[in-house]
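Dear support,

Our group has been running a series of protein-ligand predictions, and this particular one with adenosine-5'-triphosphate is the one our PI (initials K.S.) wants archived with full inputs and outputs. We had some confusion internally about which version of the output was final, so please treat the block below as the authoritative record. The input we submitted was:
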Amino acid sequence: MTDPLAEIGSLSAVDFDAGALFSGQPSGREIKGYAAACRHTPAIDPDYLFPAVMRDLVVWFMSGNDPLYLFGPTGSGKTSLVRQVAARLNYPVFDITGHGRLEFSDLAGHLTVDNGSMRFQHGPLALAMKHGGLFLLNEIDLLDPASAAGLNGVLDGAPLCIPENGGEVIPPHPMFRFVATANTNGGSDGTGLYQGTLRQNLAFMDRFWLCEVAYPDSTAEIQILERRAPALPADLRSTMVEFANEVPDTSISGARVVRELSALIDVTRATDLERGTLHTPDHGVERGVRERLVVAAWKQKVCFLEQGKPPQKVDCGFR
Ligand SMILES: Nc1ncnc2c1ncn2[C@@H]1O[C@H](COP(=O)(O)OP(=O)(O)OP(=O)(O)O)[C@@H](O)[C@H]1O
Ligand SMILES: [Mg+2]
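Confirmed final output from the archive:
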């Protein structure tokens, strides 16, 4: 088996035409990527529909080394957007998901036992800085702000110093990029829906470009569903999106049709196939909608408990 890191070391940087790559129309504007994908490059999702905010991400990619902070509600497409842009650029992605006890050594690396002797194993941040990859830190607002401040130097473009590895110093590779994603904009969660998120330190937040990723609009949701579930009749797809948008807004949109409904349909199909009883797409839809109603009822309950608002009637409009 080839050494995955040797493979990254041999990647050569190339300039792509940003317009040709992301919209099919040459734009004369160059964006750096790699000539070939490696095992750390995310796979291209052929059904992925680039949202308008993709332009902001592409401009950020072209404009330098400042870190980027993408925020938006759950399922709005932050992580997939970063991974799909990286996939088109053949960029290696090193990712990790934040949590309250994440420590700097989880990012930089730690000593490990290898064949009876101690060896330093680089973490995702160190690998991205060393080899010119994209470091993707998901759910950054779950980090303890005091631990997150340990990243300030790296966010400013300083080298990463690793005393545990004999004082190794890793200067940032020119292709290194840092992207964080979160459900809040770092100023804490006012909705009560994102438990565990923490208000981040202002000096820390100040180091990022901020970019909001909202839910796709109904037209985009219908297009995504069309790509994900082409066998569904078109009117059924429209009804699913309508239904999702009719769930009362309890400070987040109910329109999680892409992830919740289509994922449920996939699961339903998979389990039905396993049992050897392939049902029609309607069966998946029916189960998906039933499950979705449970989610809607749960959101209503949260709203009632936290804001004292009585539950409202859910008009699903499902024919
Ligand atoms: N534009 C899109 N085209 C196709 N699929 C999409 C699109 N946006 C999101 N999805 C799909 O929706 C799902 C949720 O997206 P993703 O995980 O990127 O959301 P997120 O904003 O990172 O959520 P969280 O805040 O929970 O981490 C994924 O399965 C993804 O593939
Ligand atoms: Mg995510």
